[in-house]
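[audit] Reproducing an earlier prediction to check determinism. Same input, same settings, fresh worker. If the tokens differ from the archived copy the diff job will pick it up downstream; this log only records the rerun itself.
[audit] input (329 residues):
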Amino acid sequence: MILAAATVFTHTRVDRYEKTGPDLLTGQWMGRPPENSPSRRADVKENAIALFSDDPKAGVNIYQEISGLDPGTVLEFFADMKCEDVKPGEKPWNRARVLLVQNDHKKDRWDIPHLVASLAGTLGWETYRVFFPIHPETKKIRVIAQLSQSTGLLELKHIRLYPVSQARVYTWIRDGLLFLWTAFSFLLIGSCFVMGQKRMVLRVLLVSALIAIVFGTTMPGEMRTLVLNDIKTWVNPEPHPGNSSPDQWDLSKIGHFCFFAVFGLILCLMMPMVAAFQVMIIILLLAGGTETAQFLIDGRTPLLGDFFIDAAGGFSGIMLIRSTPMNNQ
């Protein structure tokens, strides 16, 4: 509980980045609709944008291009946004959106995180602050504000795009907390060694499962995206032509479930005399700890849904072993 409170405090109260350069945006937005268009307009005044469209087939889209960024640079996009009566189109991306898209001079890299905000309906002013690491292959970026085949009004103000670097104080605190989270995980598993059987094979499997869980849940967001894309390409090297929608199955969720199922299974094999609810408590502590630690990992966000998937996987592993005749003998 102390670690979780310290992690949340660090995430919410300690500034992660500090500015290292001037604002990269100018007032030169491109792609505006014709001035005499009655159904679409893009108004730009000083540091504010208003996009309007009542044509769901066309929408409205404006952008700025920025080049000459060094690989590894981190950009902070900051803006206040609101929308009024935005009616989404047929596709999931047909909404009021703000994007930062990276391009390698050959194509736009939609496989790299690019979404600042995706809005629908009527929402009041809210501040959006998103950080984007520049991929090594990126040659230029495009900042886009759009009503993508949707209708309504999207407004932005106080728009900024700065190069930033990680603050030294935050780095010290983050590294210390991640070390403590790792120590907590191995201390938790160490208690299983004391209570459990001393068969070397089970111990090796338990440590291997723990390392896989910790590595998978604390992998930086950019690395995680690249790994998942490589695996999906290997599984399905020739996707259906024109299919630009997300996969119907989420590999990361399957990984969450399977690794914790194996973890719960091994725990039960090591501790056959320990009550199932005690084994489940260990799994819940590990699942909660790994999710909370993601507050400190670049590009990762702790999700309550992932915690429940982890718990379901662990519970399945426990039930698989505890319901077998061998375990009841």
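[audit] rerun output stored. Observation attached for the diff report: The CA atoms of residues 102 and 141 lie 4 Å apart.
[audit] end
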